[in-house]
Automatic annotation (TrEMBL):
Family annotation (SUPFAM superfamilies): DNA/RNA polymerases
Name of the protein in its database record: Reverse transcriptase domain-containing protein
UniProt cross-references to Pfam families, sorted A to Z: RVT_1
CDD domains in the record: RT_DIRS1
InterPro entries from the UniProt entry: DNA/RNA_pol_sf, Hepadnavirus_pol/RT, Rev_trsase/Diguanyl_cyclase, RT_dom
Domain Reverse transcriptase span(s) in chain numbering: 6-187
Alphabetical list of Gene3D superfamilies matching this protein: 3.30.70.270, HIV Type 1 Reverse Transcriptase, subunit A, domain 1
């Protein structure tokens, strides 16, 4: 997290800010995922309620015989910066050292809304280019009539997202034909 720029070490606990604890949980791949306990901070956040339209949009866009490409944005929330004056509210301790998040951590009550609001104009631009897609937080489902078109559009979309500062998790990117035996879309 530190080497990726998601958090910065500070010399002392925050003054006039908020302090949370961080712990590690095992991941399926054997690594460890840092989890910050933001329960107390979240009780002070009035996170806007919003509806995720992913599955409803999918029903209106999906056509018989479409090829699908599922893209996953890696560490999606971490790509959204936090202003310097608000970082003191996202302070935490780990192994007797103090840190502040420079970006939206997972578990922050407002993070899904902020991330969705950030991606909405990007999705609108992509749709104006004739690409059919559905967003659901950090998952993107692209639909195209042919395998080649699906691959080409996915390649262009990955490039565009990378230019905008997002990282696509290539290991989780999947190309699927809905009529095949391997067909699945997990949302």
């Amino acid at each position: 997290m530190i080497s990726e720029g998601a958090a910065t070490e500070s010399q002392t606990p925050p003054v006039g800010g908020f302090f949370s604890t961080l712990f590690l949980v095992p991941k399926k791949d054997g690594g460890q995922r840092p989890v910050i306990n933001l329960k107390e901070l979240n009780s002070f956040i009035n996170a806007p309620h919003f509806m995720m339209k992913g599955i409803y949009t999918l029903k209106s866009l999906l056509q018989m015989g479409d090829w699908l490409v599922k893209l996953d944005l890696k560490d999606a929330y971490l790509s959204i910066p936090i202003s310097k004056e608000h970082r003191k509210y996202l302070s935490f301790e780990f192994m007797d050292r103090f840190y502040q998040f420079n970006c939206h951590p997972f578990g922050l009550a407002s993070a899904p809304w902020v991330f969705t609001k950030t991606l909405k104009p990007i999705a609108s631009l992509i749709r104006e280019l004739g690409i059919r897609l559905v967003l659901y937080i950090d998952d993107i489902l692209l639909m195209a009539e042919t395998k080649k078109k699906a691959r080409d559009q996915a390649s262009g979309l990955v490039y565009m997202l990378q230019c905008l500062g997002f990282t696509v998790n290539i290991k989780k990117t999947v190309l699927v034909h809905p009529n095949s035996e391997n067909s699945w879309v997990s949302w």
